[in-house]
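dude i think i finally got it to work??
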Amino acid sequence: MPLISKKQKTRVGLDVGSYAVKVVEMKDTPTGSEIVKVGLKKLLPGAIVDGEPMDRDAVISAIKEIYEEYDIVNKETSSAICGRSVIIKKIKMEEMDDETAREVMTLEAEQYVPFEKEELSVDFEILRRGMAGNTMEVLLVAAKKDKVLSHIALIKDAGLVPSAIDVDTFAVQNAFELNYEYEEGRVYALIDIGLSATNIGIVRDGIPLFNRDVPVGGETFVEGMQRKLGITSEEARAALEGVPGAKAEGVLGAIESVGEDLSIAIERSFSYLRSSGEAEMVDKIYLSGGGARITGLKAFLAEKLSIAVDMSNPLRNIQFDEEILGADPLTVAPSLMVAIGLASRQGS
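look at this
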């Protein structure tokens, strides 16, 4: 559900995250989608905080470098925003046609979100029509206008042409739908663990039921391990990723201590889902993002939540040459979830 979009043929997705800038270039083939190029450029700590560039010049330089290093010629790019300036909300409203709904949403969106109308960029999707009382269910996406314009300026200053500005949570869902089939009636939690935050998206039959960001991410685990084990941030990161030779003693205990906070946040989201009447239970969890690779986290969440947990693989139904990934596909795949979701949506 892009907030801003225009028709074009390119298939380039740019994920500007707190840990790194990631870019994926894709094309369509007679047998499906194919990844042409993949690039990743790490950012210095603190360059981006809560989705906001703190060191704008460093982020722009990283974007320019990744396009040059990986020889990505096509500059028309789809990207995404996230953080507290973005609100996703399901609402019920009187049945009306799409054009009228857009006028109403533009004029009345502020009653559903804690921002003034003049501050908002708004988009929406009609999820269900013909409901009781001549109503319909609408998914409203509202972002602070200055957040959207700032992100567009960042992309342009990096020498790119912003063809779509989407939202991270929908990019994750796009990537999931490109690679997996929904089983009718089953409820899936798509949990993307980034450096500074985790996004929880719950879907059924392709319809979003609930979205929430929680302030627990990979960096939270690093800090927790530093406190508990008295090790450096570099040693903590190596241990979290299971790097051979890394200090491993006490790692699982430290991970479980921080993981407890994450599991509680996830369970609260599930409880809200039940109390809202949207669904009684979640059938399966799919993890993605760089934090999904934290040693032992998948098994810990499965045990704490008593739900099957699997790793999302956004390369599952996509053709690619392993050489362009520069690493084991299953290792790098979860980190590419947002970028692949953006590239798959672009131009559609």
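The CA atoms of residues 47 and 54 lie 5 Å apart.
im so relieved honestly
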